[in-house]
UniProtKB/TrEMBL annotation:
It comes from the Eukaryota. Residues 1-17 form the signal peptide. The lineage of its organism: Eukaryota, Metazoa, Chordata, Craniata, Vertebrata. This is NACHT, LRR and PYD domains-containing protein 12. It comes from Erpetoichthys calabaricus. Keywords: Leucine-rich repeat, Repeat, Signal.
Length: 325
């Protein structure tokens, strides 16, 4: 059916190319296989193609299907900017083709999502070759749950520090990078060429060239020492952090109530919090110097008592909160 639709769209181009090729195509969870990819590739490479976003999440495309798709991506006619391929049964075998697509002279890709695929370190190393290419325009790169270890730290670091790198968002959640992998990544993060603004990994906040404005640290065992080290970076004049998700709410609230604190968004989703932290949070919301406008407390065991305590702060005239989850 999909092949028939794509063929019909191709035949319609001579009379109504704008209608035949929408800008957005979402085919998530459509039981697609590699058999559809040749047709999709022909759409991408068609002379009058207007497709800029393609979502194929949760389909069994496998490496052979993606290889066909990459043939269309590499053509000069492809206008695709966003490609989402979460949980598509991909492995490192598809990464060389994707890397060539990223480094193609006519590439328009700015967002690539490959989460929940078994790419492993060998696959990411191949992808990083494309990242380093001056033709690569990628800005958002999502690699959550891809079976990565510390072995991907060095190639990613080189990709981030490449002179022509445009990456502003890198997502590496649910991978086993460990401390050694993060240390390798840090070398790229502190490079003046690094444009990264949003990271899900701990890095040195006080680096002179840092562009970091958002940091999420949920689901990690930072412990008190980790938060103490984090706060050292937060207090540095070079720190540009605006949004922080972490543990140790009591310690954080002390800093949030300080007149020098400018944090507006605080994410504490699934951090094992109880009603015991809510009085502190409430006093922070009602502090005269508070700048908080967004507070995320999803998936915590606050119960009714915790929310009752929070409400005291919400009712205070000093509270500037606009969004509460």
């Amino acid at each position: 059916i999909l092949f028939f639709i794509c063929s019909l769209a191709l035949r319609l181009t001579c009379t109504c190319s704008q209608l035949a090729f929408p800008h957005l195509c979402r085919l998530n969870t459509c039981h697609l296989t590699s058999g559809c990819c040749k047709a999709l590739s022909s759409i991408l490479s068609a002379e009058h193609s207007h497709l800029t976003e393609l979502s194929l999440n949760y389909n069994c495309l496998d490496d052979s299907g993606l290889g066909l798709l990459c043939e269309g991506l590499k053509t000069k006619n492809s206008k695709l900017e966003t490609l989402r391929l979460s949980q598509c049964k991909l492995t490192s075998g598809c990464c060389e083709g994707l890397s060539l697509a990223l480094s193609a002279a006519h590439s328009h890709l700015t967002e690539l999502k490959l989460s929940d695929n078994n790419l492993e370190d060998s696959g990411v190393r191949l992808l990083c070759e494309g990242l380093k290419n001056p033709n690569c325009k990628l800005e958002t790169f999502r690699l959550s749950s891809c079976g990565l270890t510390a072995g991907c730290g060095a190639p990613l670091s080189l990709g981030l520090s490449a002179e022509h790198s445009r990456l502003t968002e890198l997502v590496l959640g649910n991978n086993n990078l460990g401390d050694s992998g993060v240390k390798l990544l840090y070398e790229g993060l502190r490079n003046k060429n690094c444009k990264l603004e949003k990271r899900v990994l701990f890095s040195v906040l006080s680096d002179e060239h840092s562009h970091l404005t958002e940091l999420w640290l949920g689901y990690n065992k930072l412990e008190d020492l980790g938060v103490v080290l984090l706060c050292e970076g937060l207090r540095n004049k070079s720190c540009k952090l605006e949004k922080l998700g972490a543990f140790c709410v009591h310690l954080l609230c002390e800093g949030l109530r300080d007149k020098n604190c400018k944090i507006e968004k605080l994410g504490l989703t699934q951090c094992g919090l109880t009603s015991g932290c809510c009085e502190d949070l409430s006093s922070t919301l009602s502090a005269e110097q508070s700048h908080l406008t967004e507070l995320y407390l999803n998936n915590n065991d606050l119960v009714d008592l915790g929310v009752h305590l929070l409400s005291e702060g919400l009712m205070n005239k000093n509270c500037k909160l606009e969004k509460l989850e």
